[in-house]
Design a protein that fits this description.
Layout (H helix, E strand, L loop, with lengths): L1 E9 L6 E10 L4 E5 L6 H8 L7 E6 L2 E2 L8 H6 L1 E5 L10 H11 L4 H14 L15 H13 L5 E5 L7 H16 L3 E5 L3 H4 L5 E6 L2 E6 L8 H29 L1
Parallel strand pairs: 3-8, 3-9, 6-7, 7-8
Antiparallel strand pairs: 1-2, 1-4, 4-5, 9-10
The chain binds adenosine-5'-diphosphate (ADP) and magnesium ion (MG).
């Protein structure tokens, strides 16, 4: 669970107010879009979650950690809970796709056998099994972002955080990438995606938190709880039936009148 309670944050260097009394609670397994204009405070919100910026006031909880009192020693453990995806992919050019993904696991000292298994699994998940031995420059933009997503997933983090992950992609690829986050969410991860692409956001049925000048100005819940797909189908079916009933009622009324 991620919780912000009356959180305010200013950058020390220039006094810019990035977050102004923000309260947001994100439950485990949720998918949340954070939207807002450039400079609204979206990246700052993520920076706080990642433990990269300390807040001036309020409470921030990420999983078991209280970020106001988190020790420097605990930061690597906080970051292990998080898989992070950036707009500009941030792949290592001299490493193959496989090594870009395996790298994070080597750093934490995982054994080779386990690494191979995990890397194969996530490359399959993002549909890049065939590209394992390619280098980033040999890939399309969309494929590069899928490598970055595989890397974010490889350590099986509880939360995936993405800052404008489709900022460098055309609309069709953007939709593919967002669908991939959908799939990851369905597998159980909490997903927080920052974007200013409202058109894209409205193609999905997820909670939308809007930030303006560092403040949360709206928080629209997902229509259906993402974890309950069967409920979603039932609800859609009921809606369809209700539409049919309404149409029939209209017809009957017309006949009655006519
Ligand atoms: N590293 C930084 N140092 C100083 N000010 C910053 C820094 N990063 C962002 N800001 C300022 O904080 C505010 C929020 O920025 P940001 O969180 O990056 O917005 P967004 O991601 O929504 O575009 C802006 O006024 C921005 O200029
Ligand atoms: Mg930003």
């Amino acid at each position: 669970m991620i919780e912000f309670k009356n959180v305010s944050m200013k950058y020390k260097t220039n006094g810019a107010v990035a977050l102004d009394n923000v309260s947001v609670k994100i439950d485990d397994g949720e998918f949340v879009f954070i939207v807002g204009a450039s400079g609204a405070g979206k990246s700052s919100f993520l920076n706080v979650i990642m433990g990269q910026e300390k807040v001036d006031s309020g409470i921030v909880r990420v999983g078991p950690y209280n970020l106001a009192s988190i020790r420097r020693r605990a930061l690597p453990y906080l970051r292990r809970m998080l898989g992070i995806v950036f707009q500009d992919f941030r792949l290592i050019p001299k490493m193959t796709v496989y090594d870009n993904v395996a790298f994070a696991l080597r750093v934490i000292g995982m054994g080779d056998k386990k690494i191979t298994k995990r890397v194969r699994y996530v490359l399959k998940l993002v549909d890049l099994t065939d590209k394992a031995n390619d280098y980033p420059h040999q890939l399309s933009q969309g494929e590069r972002q899928r490598v970055a997503i595989a890397r974010a997933l490889v350590n099986n983090p509880a939360v995936i955080i993405a800052d404008e992950p489709t900022g460098n992609l055309d609309p069709i690829l953007s939709n593919d990438i967002m669908s991939l986050f959908d799939k990851i969410n369905a597998l159980g991860a909490t997903v927080v995606v920052v974007t200013h692409d409202l058109e894209l956001v409205h193609q999905f049925n997820h909670r939308i938190v809007t930030i303006e000048n560092g403040r949360v100005v709206s928080d629209i819940p997902s229509k259906y709880k993402s974890e309950d797909i069967s409920l979603r189908f039932t609800a859609e079916k009921n809606e369809a039936e209700a539409d049919e009933d309404a149409a029939q009622a209209e017809e009957t009324e017309e006949q009655d009148n006519g």
